[in-house]
């Protein structure tokens, strides 16, 4: 195909084939490099190499696509949390209160997270899982790897309150007789709704460590076609996630029942605990409990003893029997040894004032 030529007022012929010259229009002349250099519109700017300003050439040669630095900046902006889009804490509390107040929650269901701890008058069935008032998790969607848990940046912990007074669940009592509760022989886990019975009910597999245990003769029962015990509806330990159990002397040291309990208060006196005010808050609360006569009103007040200890990189044991409290420092934390523990275990009723004075001085001692 022959190209088309057109006569212009400049007296030169130009090829105006639009297919070869993109934005050229028919009937217009072809401009040469000299024409571009002489045109004021492009002079010192448009074409690099023809008396062009260096600053403009530098900008002209810059890539038009995003750089790695720009993409990183955009990604950083997307990762930021917009505080204005986050719901207010009071709004979240109010919504949860309106949704769950006065309702009955089935603890055997995994469809939704339990109500917030601030929502009161919530009733739980207690089937299979323990109620949130007894044990509450910080995460209800558990990461499947430690790396994902680290990226989540939320600590995974359990808040356990075995004797919570806020719970409306009526705790059943299980008594297996002189043999005591049925437990796993390896990890010592108690029998619960999630163990699996095998061999016609003669064995059960622990849901914690997968150990196969023998079922005691007094606890044997036949299974149905689904592998479920026929008496599970009459066994609270196989029906509920929380229950009280009567124990025997095997749970006591040297098979001697405990008559004089000892409460040991271990206080964190590290730099972070002291600087944050945690130590002062704990000692003040403990002093208020002792001064309120809590131990005076206990049914077994004649046998209760307490001991006050502290720790950071060392262990500190206090003796508040005298007006000037004594302190013993234990440097070997891996194998601690205390010369005479009986001198540090005191009666909270007889030594009330000395204990309160010691607790008030502890923040100053480790400041």
From TrEMBL:
GO terms for molecular function: SNARE binding; zinc ion binding. GO terms for biological process: COPII-coated vesicle cargo loading; intracellular protein transport. Transmembrane segments: none annotated. Pfam families: Sec23_trunk, zf-Sec23_Sec24. GO terms for cellular component: COPII vesicle coat; endoplasmic reticulum exit site. Residues 181-219 form the Zinc finger Sec23/Sec24-type domain. InterPro entries: Sec23/24_trunk_dom, SEC23_SEC24_subfamily, vWFA_dom_sf, Znf_Sec23_Sec24, Znf_Sec23_Sec24_sf. Gene3D superfamilies: beta-sandwich domain of Sec23/24 (2.60.40.1670), von Willebrand factor, type A domain (3.40.50.410), Zn-finger domain of Sec23/24 (2.30.30.380). Residues 260-367 form the Sec23/Sec24 trunk domain. PANTHER family: SEC24-RELATED PROTEIN, SECRETORY 24CD, ISOFORM C. Belongs to the SEC23/SEC24 family. SEC24 subfamily. This is Protein transport protein Sec24D (Trinotate prediction). The lineage of its organism: Eukaryota, Metazoa, Cnidaria, Myxozoa, Myxosporea.
């Amino acid at each position: 195909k022959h190209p088309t030529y057109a006569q212009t007022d400049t007296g030169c012929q130009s090829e105006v084939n639009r297919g070869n010259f993109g934005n050229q229009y028919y009937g217009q002349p072809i401009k040469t490099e000299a024409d571009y250099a002489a045109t004021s519109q492009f002079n010192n700017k448009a074409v690099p190499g023809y008396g062009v300003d260096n600053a403009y050439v530098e900008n002209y040669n810059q890539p038009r696509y995003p750089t790695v630095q720009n993409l990183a900046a955009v990604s950083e902006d997307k990762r930021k949390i917009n505080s204005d889009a986050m719901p207010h804490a009071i709004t979240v509390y109010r919504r949860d209160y309106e949704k769950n107040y006065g309702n009955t929650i089935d603890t055997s269901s995994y469809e939704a997270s339990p109500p917030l701890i601030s929502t009161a008058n919530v009733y739980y069935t207690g089937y299979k899982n323990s109620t949130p008032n007894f044990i509450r998790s910080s995460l209800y969607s558990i990461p499947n790897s430690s790396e994902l848990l680290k990226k989540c940046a939320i600590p995974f912990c359990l808040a356990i309150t075995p004797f919570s007074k806020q719970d409306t669940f009526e705790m059943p009592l299980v008594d297996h007789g002189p043999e005591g509760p049925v437990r796993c022989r390896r990890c010592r886990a108690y029998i619960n709704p999630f163990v699996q019975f095998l061999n016609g009910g003669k064995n059960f597999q622990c849901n914690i460590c997968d150990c196969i245990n023998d079922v005691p003769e007094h606890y044997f029962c036949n299974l149905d076609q689904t592998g479920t015990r026929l008496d599970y509806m009459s066994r609270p330990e196989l029906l509920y996630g929380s229950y009280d159990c009567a124990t025997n002397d095997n749970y006591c040291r040297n098979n001697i029942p405990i008559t004089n309990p000892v409460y040991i208060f271990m206080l964190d006196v590290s730099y972070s605990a002291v600087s944050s005010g945690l130590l002062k808050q704990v000692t003040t609360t403990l002093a208020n409990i002792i001064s309120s006569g809590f131990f005076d009103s206990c049914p077994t007040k004649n046998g209760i003893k307490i001991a006050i200890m502290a720790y950071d990189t060392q262990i500190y044991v206090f003796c508040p029997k005298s007006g000037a409290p004594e302190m013993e420092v234990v440097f070997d934390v891996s194998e601690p040894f205390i010369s005479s523990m009986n001198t540090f275990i005191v009666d909270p009723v007889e030594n009330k004032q000395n204990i309160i004075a010691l607790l008030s001085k502890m923040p100053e001692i480790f400041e």
